[in-house]
Amino acid sequence: MPSQTVNPPPPCIPGLFTDEGSNNDTRSWEALMYWRSDCFVYSVTWYKERSGVQHEFLHFYISSPDGRHWSTVIAERGKVDGQPGKSDRTASPSPFSSRSTSDRVAADMVFAATLGTTGATGIDGRCAPARAIRLHSLTFPDGNGPSAHQLAMLLVAMSTVKEKYHLLASQCYWFSATGFKALVRLFPGAKAEEDIHSKQKGTCYGLPIPFASVVDMVCTTYEEKQQEIYGGVYHGPADPTHC
Fold first, then answer.
1. Looking at the domain assignment, is residue 216 inside a domain?
2. Which domain holds residue 189?
3. Which of 88, 139, 152, 190 could form a disulfide with 30 if both were Cys (CB 3.0 to 4.6 A apart)?
4. Looking at the whole model, is its pTM more than 0.90?
5. pLDDT for 134-190, tens place per residue?
6. Measured on CA atoms in the order 75, 79, 83, 86, is the torsion positive or negative?
């Protein structure tokens, strides 16, 4: 976990640095992060929950503009209601029935709060060893990771490429694997760590869960959006949003 200072106090940035925490779908979060080219991802960790259907999600630490404070962030895919992993954990007793494997509305959500605040308690609690297993992690050199806006664009690219939740193609396992692999490809040079439990990724109690391999498509969609918005020119920070 990165360290942070007490003074000056952390900024108030909607969708990223808030005491109470925030939750947004990926497209809403991308709109909030539009000017956040001054906040950078320090690390990303791929987690698997120990209970239920062993839901998988990605956790990020993102720096404040002055680099002295951190936001703790979870991005994940669920179904319909957008509760963190709820839909996956409440799968039907026969998960491979025709109803369960049919396309459903996907809820691709981002939960964020200022590290050390009340809002961060629930987010970081989900990553506690008693509740989740670390599978893989990436730590980016200073300033070489994606900005908050670049991360948001990548998450939207994933939501665009696979809009529907499908148990055998585009579920939480797909979301976590695709996001992690895309970050490795798009932002090379990060320090990678593979946990001893890494072989459990994409499985439910040892049973491999199939999912679509579309990393190339996601990266292309992201790069097209990057070129459209940035045009090869540094984007910000100008006119930043504030609480």
1. yes
2. 22-230
3. 152
4. no
5. 999 999 987 789 999 999 999 999 999 999 888 778 899 999 999 999 999 999 889
6. negative
